[in-house]
Recover the amino acids of this structure.
């Protein structure tokens, strides 16, 4: 998971500022766990657009895609593939 | 009590049992005889207070102040008891609104009575209290409401209301000669109607806690143990302090306590769960009241409820008291549901004095069903299918966040239900993007490694998604509190949610 560390650092800085990034597990449920709400989702998406150059107009935005660090990792991989195919 | 007024009954105890202890202060005992003589001596000071209206007596807790209040009652002058912590300007405004004149300074009145061992003032011969019957509708005490900002509201309580209250409280909690009652609250609090005035009216012994030592759980435990306290009524902060201290100092239990009451705020579940161990022989009661109505409901906590650390129901209205649940559109709710609690009691005020008198909080029955005067408490309550009422927060703590109506106190209650959270405050603060966002600060138990991932999970399980605070901060320090022990929300914003933080 090449992006897991960066994702964790972002999530922790933005939503869980009292804890170190290493305490966040790949599969912790960020939606059920009350970490990311709809407003938080917008922040995550804006960060992904900015950092990974993902055009979210071209991909399906299902909240489930952002429910954990692992899910976000998979979302990045999918979005990169979509972009590669489109190119 | 023999059917007399409060001050007449205290005088009667002084005649019948002058050597019985009335007050315990810093370990020293003040007998009914001493107290009555001191009240008699203080009468001249009250008589010298200009006018015939209310007399202002700063509520500095001491036997001397209690004697001075009795002297005002003997002189048939209502007593305004402003908090000892009020600033000079606020105090002046308060006196003006009450039409009160501060009692002239004469510090020598506070000299202990043993200076005059030969004082042969005959008990009960202190003048004309019975020359004319007291007007039971006339106010004897002018209480003040709390509030972290602005001028406290002045709440007159009539002599008859005081006597009806003390009669109820003495019966409900077994207060009489030989009963030791802890007084935790400052003297200006309505709680003193029970701890101090009921106890004195019925010949018991008041163990006064010095406000300077009121934050030391250890001191409170030692005081209760040393003076064999039978009855204790206090705000949840007290119960938290004593349960924390009992854990730290391994005090096993205080079997002397027969009745323990919590009042004034919701008792955090984890604190409630520890009370049966600390007070193993006590009946636990949740008492609900406002300064405006005095105690209105009482609920005796069952063992299961304490063990479940659950939110406590308000319980039954006291004898003569009554309650309504009124919805937003003014309908009186008969079945289950939520609404504002309206209350009427035999102990209630006739209305505020001064500028607050214009506030529309005293109202006739919403449908004209009776001609009593009802007090709109501003408390939101929920009535369950079984008819039990539970507090759901304040109408003024209702906020809208991103279109969803949320009661910030409900969020606080969920935070406090976590075993590692000892204090919590939730506020809706302006946000550039969302309009308003919920901010929470939680104080952890000492040594707790609780983090926001765990606590957010706890919140998400207990609340609708929109009510999970967007910003959650931790502190290991006590939250700032007002003089009444409630979280000071303005200071929480300053301390935890300004830019620098």
């Amino acid at each position: 998971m090449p992006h897991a560390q960066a994702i964790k650092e972002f999530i922790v800085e933005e939503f869980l500022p009292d804890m170190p990034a290493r305490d966040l597990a790949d599969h912790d449920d960020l939606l059920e766990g009350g970490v990311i709400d709809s407003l938080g989702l917008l922040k995550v998406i804006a960060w992904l657009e900015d950092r990974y150059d993902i055009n979210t107009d071209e991909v399906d935005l299902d909240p489930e895609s952002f429910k954990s660090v692992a899910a976000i990792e998979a979302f990045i991989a999918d979005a990169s593939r979509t972009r590669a195919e489109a190119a | 009590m023999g059917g007399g007024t409060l001050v007449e009954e205290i005088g009667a105890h002084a005649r019948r049992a002058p050597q019985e202890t009335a007050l315990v202060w810093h370990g020293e005992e003040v007998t009914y005889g001493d107290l009555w003589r001191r009240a008699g001596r203080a009468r001249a000071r009250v008589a010298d207070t200009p006018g015939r209206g209310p007399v202002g007596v700063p509520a500095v807790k001491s036997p001397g102040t209690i004697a001075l209040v009795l002297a005002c009652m003997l002189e048939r002058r209502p007593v305004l008891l402003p908090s000892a912590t009020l600033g000079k300007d606020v105090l002046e405004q308060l006196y003006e609104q009450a039409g009160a004149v501060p009692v002239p300074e004469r510090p020598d009145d506070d000299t202990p009575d043993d200076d005059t061992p030969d004082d042969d003032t005959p008990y009960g011969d202190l003048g004309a209290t019975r020359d004319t019957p007291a007007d039971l509708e006339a106010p004897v005490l002018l209480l003040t409401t709390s509030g972290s900002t602005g001028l406290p509201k002045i709440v007159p309580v009539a002599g008859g209301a005081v006597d009806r209250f003390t009669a109820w409280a003495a019966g409900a909690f077994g207060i009489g000669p030989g009963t030791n009652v802890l007084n935790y609250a400052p003297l200006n609090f309505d709680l003193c109607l029970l701890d101090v005035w009921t106890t004195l009216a019925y010949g018991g012994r008041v163990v006064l806690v010095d406000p300077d030592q009121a934050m030391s759980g250890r001191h409170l435990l030692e005081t209760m143990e040393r003076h064999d306290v039978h009855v204790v009524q206090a705000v949840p902060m007290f119960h938290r302090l004593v349960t924390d201290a009992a854990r730290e100092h391994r005090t096993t239990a205080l079997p002397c306590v027969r009745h323990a009451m919590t009042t004034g705020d919701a008792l955090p579940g984890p604190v409630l769960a520890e009370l049966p161990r600390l007070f193993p022989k006590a009946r636990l009661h949740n008492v609900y009241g406002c300064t405006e109505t005095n105690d209105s409901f009482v609920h005796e906590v069952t063992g299961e409820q304490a063990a479940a650390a659950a939110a406590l129901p308000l319980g039954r209205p006291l004898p003569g008291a009554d309650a309504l649940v009124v919805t937003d559109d003014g309908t009186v709710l008969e079945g289950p549901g939520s609404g504002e609690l309206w209350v009427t009691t035999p102990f209630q005020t006739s209305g505020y004095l001064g500028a607050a008198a214009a506030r529309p909080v005293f109202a006739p029955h919403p449908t004209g069903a009776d001609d009593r005067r009802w007090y709109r408490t501003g408390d939101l309550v929920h009535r369950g299918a079984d008819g039990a009422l539970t507090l759901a927060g304040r109408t003024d703590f209702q906020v809208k966040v991103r279109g969803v109506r949320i009661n910030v106190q409900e969020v606080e209650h969920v935070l406090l239900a976590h075993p590692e959270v000892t204090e919590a405050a939730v506020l809706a603060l302006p946000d550039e993007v969302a309009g308003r966002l919920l901010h929470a600060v939680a104080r952890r138990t000492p040594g707790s490694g609780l983090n926001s991932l765990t606590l957010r999970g706890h919140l998400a399980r207990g609340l609708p998604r929109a009510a999970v605070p967007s910003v959650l901060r931790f502190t290991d320090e006590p939250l700032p509190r007002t003089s009444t022990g409630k979280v000071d929300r303005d200071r929480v914003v300053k301390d935890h949610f300004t830019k620098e933080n």
